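no rush on this but wanted to send it before i forget. theres a chain ive been looking at and ive put its sequence and its fold in token form underneath. i want to understand how the tokens follow from the sequence so walk me through it. thanks a lot i owe you, the record is right below:
>
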Amino acid sequence: MLEYGPDWTEELKEYIRARDDYTCQECDKSPLVKLHVHHIDYDKSNSDPNNLISLCHRCHAHTNARREYHTVRYQALRAGEPVDAWEQPLPLPEKGDVRNPPIVCIVDGVEYPSYAAVMRILGLTRYQLDFVLAVEPKEQRRLIAQETSVQYYCERVVAGVVYKDIHAAVNALGLPYSVVESIAEAPPEKQVSLLEKYD
């Protein structure tokens, strides 16, 4: 087990929290409780401030999985490079490597190109998506319905065409979830003109 280095002090941790504006650098929230200070390279003896980042309890817990991925992400974040972890393709796993999942995310039997696509289409936060992915596939639909206020699995009528659910409408029209949902909620006589705006 790695030991913390002699530089790992409460003063250093407080310096990192202040440097990061007392905000979780992953979810951009300012929790009421103290932020954790995470070692980006997972080496507890490396207390270089460039190797440390402030995370809330929930985001810090997520760093226990996909360590290589989080290391690269947080190194880029500290270097000031633009990073959107959920839009970036994840590395394809080597045979037998379960730490890095493939870039296709399957939720409730539907394949998505990225985690961002799932979140956008289903209206889930990153944490809600993590909970959904943690359950058996047969339980995912129930959990999605529970986690969201919108019924995603009922018919949608868009410009006179009936789709079995929001997934079918989004896939057929090639538009983001929010656009399809706003068109579907518009009066039927306005839907065609709204749809034409996105052609």
Notes: Residues 156-196 form one domain.
